[in-house]
Design brief:
alpha/beta, 11 helices, 36% helix, binds phosphoric acid mono(formamide)ester
Length: 318
């Protein structure tokens, strides 16, 4: 059901998908539709956040999330400060809390944070007055990724409820899978997760998903296949014998795609390890919506920034 005009977010921060109600998720997705239209105009700029200051505090590498927040802020006419750990006083040992407090002393309205420690955005939410947006915290959550994934599924399939979605790969180290599972279950999808047993954390069934280490079984009859990156930077040695072995057992090939529905869509949050979790021809093939996810990420992040700044659906200026 579409939220009524005037409906606002109940939360000041976006720390994860887990605390959101289904109607807030729908509010973000519906608001993002309007911003996708803005991104298709010849002049891709609206005055919605003029005079607001947003700090992009990225303490971990990022291509898509960081660029997409920066573009979203520019399209909303906000003023942005881009902060990286390298070249800052973090390299002299300044703590996250002190860094955030000092940045906040310059009166931003919002802080977007990516950090390798799970819970870092929650910590900032306790000590800062600004709205905090989690742009990925350790292996915990990546809420805007799950929102843009859901937006893309809804765009391609017309709905989320009733879809069968396989999420395959390095489940253990993934913040994307956690946010997606929370979101997809709240919106009524059925989710199966698969990957090498060493990368399947125990207890995932408690989140309401099926777990099947046999990739071909997990793919059967799926509307959506979401492949996850093998996160070698977070992985202990010995999770699997070799990258070649991983591809042989869990790589998404054209042959394996045929296990899913004929109109399946293939997703990946990026960055992609081609020839490890996904074959070149599948990543670039007819079922792939991987670059649509990136395009939609800008509209979804514009919606998040607008709504956390107090905006409501149906109140957007043309
Ligand atoms: N999907 C994603 O978070 O990509 P980046 O790490 O490049 O931001």
């Amino acid at each position: 059901m579409t939220p009524e005009a005037g409906f606002h977010m109940r939360h000041k921060h976006l720390l994860g998908i887990e605390p959101l109600e289904a109607d807030e998720i729908r509010l973000i997705l519906d608001t993002a539709e309007s911003f996708l239209e803005v991104s298709r105009r010849p002049i891709k700029k609206v005055p919605t956040l003029r005079g607001r200051t947003i700090v992009n505090l990225f303490m971990e590498p990022s291509t898509r999330t960081r660029s997409s927040f920066e573009i979203a802020e520019k399209r909303l006419s906000a003023d942005s400060l881009n902060f990286s750990a390298s070249g800052s006083s973090v390299s002299k040992g300044e703590s996250l809390i002190d860094t955030a407090r000092n940045l906040e002393a310059m009166a931003p309205d919002m802080i977007i944070i990516r950090h390798s420690a799970a819970g870092a955005p929650h910590l900032l939410a306790k000590v800062c007055h600004s709205s905090i947006v989690n742009a990925g915290d350790g292996a915990h959550e990546h809420p805007t990724q799950a929102l843009l994934d859901a937006f893309t599924m809804r765009q391609k399939k017309g709905k989320i409820a009733g879809l069968r979605i396989a999420i395959i790969g390095d489940i253990l180290n993934s913040r994307v899978v956690r946010s997606n599972v929370f979101l997809l279950k709240k919106l009524g999808a059925s989710v199966v997760i698969s990957g090498p047993p060493t990368l399947l954390p125990p207890g995932m069934e408690r989140l309401g998903v099926e777990v099947d280490a046999r990739m071909e079984h997990a793919l059967e009859g799926c509307d959506v296949v979401m492949m996850l990156r093998v996160q070698r930077e977070r992985m202990a040695r010995g999770a699997f014998p070799s990258l070649r072995e991983y591809f042989n057992l869990y790589g998404l090939t054209e042959e394996r795609v045929r296990q899913a529905k004929p109109d399946v869509i293939i997703m990946h949050p990026g960055p992609i390890n081609r020839g490890v979790e996904i074959a070149h021809e599948v990543a670039d093939g007819r079922y792939s919506v991987i670059l649509d996810q990136v395009t939609n990420g800008v509209a979804v992040r514009m919606a998040v920034l607008y709504l956390l700044s107090g905006g409501a659906i149906g109140e957007l200026a043309a």
